[in-house]
Amino acid sequence: MARQRMMLRPQLATAAMLAAVVTTTSTGCFWGLVSQGPSLGIASIPIPISPYLQKEEEDKYWEAERYDRVPILGPIDDSGGPPVALDPPSDDEVIRALEKARPIEGGIPLLWERNRNDVRIVKEKIADYVDPVRVYPMIGPAQQHHAHYKCTVYYEDVRRVGWPVPHTIRDQDAREVLYIDHNHLHMVGNVDNAECLPPLN
C-alpha cells in the first residue's frame, strides 16, 4: 500500500501541473488557445515598468515636443521696425532647465528631503538679433533669429533632515540664474510662389 502511494505522488504532481497550465492558458487571455481573433502571443502579457522610468520617458517626450524643435517662420516683414523674437521662455521651460542644472527631485522621506517653495521667476531679454541670410540644408535660404534670455529664479530652499537629529534648514533668499536661448529661422524670398533669393557669393 505504501509503495503504491509512493508511485502515485509523481503522477499526482504531473497532473496538478498539467491542470494549472490548462487553466491558465484556456481562459482566452493568453497565447490564443481559445481566441476570437488575432493573438499577440506572449506579447499580450503586460510588463510592469518603474514609475521613475515612465516619468523619464514622459519628460523626454514633453521636452522634445515643446522645446527641442526649431520653428521655421515666414519672411521678416519689411514694413518697419526691427523684427521681434518669439515669446519668452515659459515658466515650465525655466523650471525644467533649473531641474536639469540643480536637481532636487527625490530624497528619502522622513530622512532627508529638499523642496523649493515660493518660486518667483524674473525673465529679461539680453539679446535679440538676426543673422545674415545663408543657405541651410533641407530648408534653403533663411535667416536665424537669436533671442537670449536671462532668467533669475528666486525661491525658498527648504531642507528637512530626519536623522540623527530632526531639523529643518531654510534659505529664504536662494536664487539661481539661467540663460535660455530661443532661436528660430525666418524663410527668405517669396515663399508663396517658391521664389527664393539667388545663392549668396
From TrEMBL:
<protein>
    <recommendedName>
        <fullName>Lipoprotein</fullName>
    </recommendedName>
</protein>
